[in-house]
Amino acid sequence: MTDSSGAKPPVTSRCDGKGAAIITIDRPERRNALNLEVKGLIADAVEALTADETVDVIILTGAGGCFVAGTDLAEMATMTPQTHVALQTDRVFNVLRHCPKILIAAVEGYALGGGCELALCCDLIIAGEDAAFGQPEIRVGIMPGAGGSQRLLRAIGKYRAMKLMLTGEPVRAPDALAMGMISEVAPKGAALERALALAKTILAMPPLAVRAIKEVVTLGQDAPLETALALERKAFVMLFDSADQKEGMQAFLEKRKPTYQGC
């Protein structure tokens, strides 16, 4: 896919024909840094794939051995509060946050600033063993502004989150895994391959249960425990009215592979 000038677009998406789609950020001259164009293209791609009934898992990755090195400071330096509001500079993060499909970040190289926040919007984060995560905004006079402070707080706790944000120091993938910040470490260069393998596993699961788990976790993480438990119980009970529940349990009892229909 190219535009009329023949230039390669900085964001592309493709489906594998088996239920998974890959969105690739490819802006090598800036290490895939997020500018307004890139953020808009990612948001548009996620919205299009959300509407595509053949896609159930979306993988977000970067080309050239880098995920996203941050937000493009050359574009951001002269922005005002009014500019941020008028240009909806947080749109992509809102689109990701409200995406009902499973989102997997496949991270190689740097995931800093807005890149770290982009990964934190996903349901799973698979990182190459040399990947680095961080929120270095304080070093240029600002702070995380697309969910980083709140997502890190919930993922790794106050004291680790505060250290990352107040020092701007990055953490490597093995340390991020130990903190509970990411899902898994893959060999260098193999994050996308591993993300696709996980997507395949998830796509083999009953779709109604997959959607119910995402919905309950998303809504429950910020709710009081009693409310979250009520949400979980209701979703659990409702799944007993599905054909997939009957098929899954019968297949288990009959020692055969289940065939799920998503109903």
Short note summarizing the structure:
This protein is of the alpha/beta class. Helix content is 45%, strand content 15%.
Strand order in the sheet with the most strands: 1-2-3-4-6-9
Order of helices and strands: EEHEHHHEEHEEHHEHEHHHH
Number of strands: 9
| Contiguous uncertain segments of 5+ residues | none
Strand content: 5-15%
- Please tell me the overall pLDDT: 94
Shape: globular
**Portion of residues within helices:** 40-55%
The level-1 CATH class of the largest domain: Alpha Beta
Distance between the termini: 36 Å
According to CATH, the fold-level topology of the largest domain is 2-enoyl-CoA Hydratase, Chain A, domain 1
SS summary, helix count: 12
Number of domains: 2
- Largest beta-sheet characterization: 6 strands, mixed
Compute the CA-based radius of gyration. Answer: 19 Å
Structural class: alpha/beta
CATH superfamily of the largest domain: 2-enoyl-CoA Hydratase, Chain A, domain 1
Explained architecture:
By secondary structure, this protein is of the alpha/beta class. It folds into 2 domains: 11-203, Alpha-Beta Complex (2-enoyl-CoA Hydratase, Chain A, domain 1); 207-253, Lyase 2-enoyl-coa Hydratase, Chain  A, domain 2 (Orthogonal Bundle). It has 12 helices and 9 strands. It has helices spanning 36-51, 73-76, 81-87, 91-97, 114-120, 148-156, 158-167, 173-179, 191-203, 207-220, 225-238, 243-253, and strands at residues 11-15, 20-25, 57-62, 102-107, 110-112, 124-128, 132-134, 171-172, 184-186. The strands form 2 sheets. Strands 1-2-3-4-6-9 form a 6-stranded mixed beta sheet, sandwiched between helices. A 3-stranded mixed beta sheet has the order 5-7-8. Helix 1 links the parallel strand 2 (20-25) and strand 3 (57-62). Helix 1 runs parallel beside helix 4 (91-97) and helix 10 packs antiparallel against helix 11. The longest helix has 16 residues, at 36-51. The chain is globular. The model has no long low-confidence stretch (mean pLDDT 94).
